[in-house]
Fold this protein.
Amino acid sequence: MSLTISLDSQLTQYSGNETICGRVNLQCFKPIEIEEVKLTFSGLAEAKVQKTKGSAAPSVGYRSKCVLFEKDRILAHQGGQQMAIGSYSWPFELTFPSHVQPEIKPSKWPVIPPFRNDANHPLPPTFSIETSDSLRRLVCSIGYHIHAQVFKPSSGFMGKPSPFISEVLALQFIPPINKADMVDVENFSHMSYHQQEHVFSIQSMHLLQEYKGRSLGVQEKLRSWFSPRQLPRFNFSVSFSYPTRAAQSTPLHCNLTVAPRMEDSSVSSPPVILMQSLHITLVSRTYARSGPSLMGSMSGEVDERMEILSRTSLNMAMSGMIDLTETFGPLVFRPIDVSFGTFNISRMYRLCVSGQFECAGKMSKFQALDLPIDIIPRSQRNATVSQGPEPPIDDNLPSYTPFSLPPEMAGVPQDAKKHDSGNF
């Protein structure tokens, strides 16, 4: 006996509300008694959370399983009658949902950011990852399947029909992109940007014209050490701006601005500011949790890092704003899944930026280590936007896979600033 599922026109990926038509085909090579033929279309989010710290052997894992939706169809009810040798086929028609089924009770999953437990929230994308750090090991998957089963008649008075043969067809799902997001990622001038600024203050004899480019003598050094308030002062700011959303596997368009703050300085003209290094890393964080059970519950989070820009020994004079794409080329990263959140699994992203700037012989370090960014689906229109040739994917790189951030985690204020000062 063989069982197959065939679709009339299977898509490479679904985004919700599509009609799925197909047939379940059964080939009987000998007469056999059959109770029924059943078709189940379902979405399932599964997670395993395991503690790894201080354990030589694998520790007990806590598992969770959340049914996102489930639709059953009885294609044939034979009632235990015998089916003769031959081929049989049953048509079916399904609709791919776009939201979790409303029958799921959110109260089963407590409200803990960044998980989503609001009823009828959007379906998360197809997802699969196994990752770990020094504290936790996570095994997570979100899958959408059409499952055909042939059941034997029940044995005994209280017996239940048992599946005799089954076949599973997996379908890929990516949430749809809304129109507002599509405008953002296709029209760079209308993107929503977030900015992180850091103000530096330098006091040094080298800010004076007569000391530029030469070493200080003993008297000048003593003066710097014992009378720091008499040293000339220069303040400047470094700010990094980036889009709050990025389309899946498309380049980031980021800007870096270096600006003198003459109103807070004692020198008459700004000195040269050199950027010596710049590093940008995309950090993906996977969250998983298990529901309460007799064995208890556990949650965990694991970060993965992907370097998208790393430049050293730049010695680049900085003044005003520069487009990092124009300066260093497209800031691209390996294709990754979109951000999402559901009852027991979520995926979020942030950028980590660091750079060193030299002014008057002194080094200042710029750091912005927790900049939230949302990865949204890449539409067909996105795919046709002229971005220039994309660099080849390095198959040796680790694979990275990514919910809309909850309001309380949506980012820091636009005018967030830090201030460093020091005497030199």
